[in-house]
Design goal:
Layout lengths: L10 H5 L10 E2 L10 H13 L9 H21 L6 E4 L2 H13 L7 E5 L8 H10 L2 E5 L13 H4 L4 E7 L11 H10 L3 E5 L11 H4 L3 E5 L9 E5 L1 H5 L24 H15 L8 H28 L4 E3 L9 E6 L4 H10 L2 E2 L1 E3 L4 H6 L8 E5 L6 H19 L2
Parallel strand pairs: 1-11, 3-4, 3-5, 5-6, 6-7
Antiparallel strand pairs: 2-8, 7-8, 9-10, 10-13, 12-13
Bound molecules: pyridoxal-5'-phosphate (PLP).
Pyridoxal-5'-phosphate (PLP) binds next to helix 4.
Length: 411
Amino acid sequence: MLVPMDATWDIEGIRSQYPALRDGTAYLDGAGGTQVPEAVIEAISAAHRSGLSNVHGPFASSRRSMKLIADAREAVADLIGGEAGGVVLGPNMTTLTYRLAGALAKTWEPGDEIVVTELDHDANIRPWVQAAASAGVTVRWARIDPQTTDLSAGQYAELVTSRTRLVAVAAASNLIGTITDVAKIAQIAHAAGALVYVDAVAAAPHLRLDMSSLGADLVAVSAYKWCGPHAGAVAASPELLETLRPDKLAPSSDEVPDRFELGTAGLANMAGIAAAVDHLANLVAGEGDRRQRLDRSFAALTVREDVMVRDTISRLTGIPGVRMIGAPTRRTGTICFSVGSLAPGQVASRLGEQDIAVWSGHAYAWELTRALGIRDTGGAIRASLAPYTTQSDLDRLVEAVAAMVVGGGQT
Ligand SMILES: Cc1ncc(COP(=O)(O)O)c(C=O)c1O
């Protein structure tokens, strides 16, 4: 057992803020969705209690709704180092990515090219592939190294051409945790005049992100992966959004970023988004504005998760029959493995019976599970960390897997 010696991480103080954790479950399914702290629950409830109305009305409750939206944009901008005026909010990343793909595809010509990766969640592949098919655009694929599961940035020198209009790439894999070299990939894409769309859904819960140092033109995140409500956001510069004309209703706002947002927003959830970013900023005590506090929180979180993940991998690897899936050079707090001849779904069910929540299957990493040769055999088991994960959660996982092997999981 290994307890990270980080006095700044008040794990009990953090956990006490999450009502759901009181049920004793080891929630190791953060990559699928995290639990939410009381501050987020309260912010959403308080928004409802305060009285909310449709936006653009000449009365206080309508102004409150507009303020919630503005605050959510600010919060997302702080989380990913963007500009509030370029934050598009929506129900989830998938919906927003289809939306942006539709808008961007209107600027493409037949014979143009885009680059997607086999590492990504399907939400950062299929919307682009389908938009490309409609626009007569060629899709080129970045491949993973089958041994390490790294996505080499070097291959983009071949993949990107003068016809490339867009490079879509994840900042991190949702299944195996691989962190990609977005900055290098973006450098190559930009040299050819292509835009870079970064799926940061699996990275944002673990890493401090900064759009400009990543070289990302558009960045997508989902709040429910970082202790917030079920909502998504895509951030870009307002200037870039001004160049795009998404399909929209005639009377709806033509302003940026509003014109990318369809229908009525989940208004109370907007309060939850801002509260979640505040919560992340306050994980470690200290002074500073929200961006500075986020810097401090993520610096501590990254170190903590790194230590815990390394230790867990080394202990799981020591169990006969356990095979780690993916050995990336840099990884988030996400671990992927299989257990002997047991089907991943069977392992997850057995763990679930012991109140250890892990995911199993392809986790929508559809192309990746094919590339790894595990799609037809039930995918893999995924355990992922969140700010509230304890050493004891991981001990329970390792011990339960070890007991399973002794109980007949081995081939
Ligand atoms: C890396 C990644 N991208 C995209 C998505 C899709 O996000 P959403 O559920 O917000 O559409 C997920 C969801 O699991 C994900 O992990």
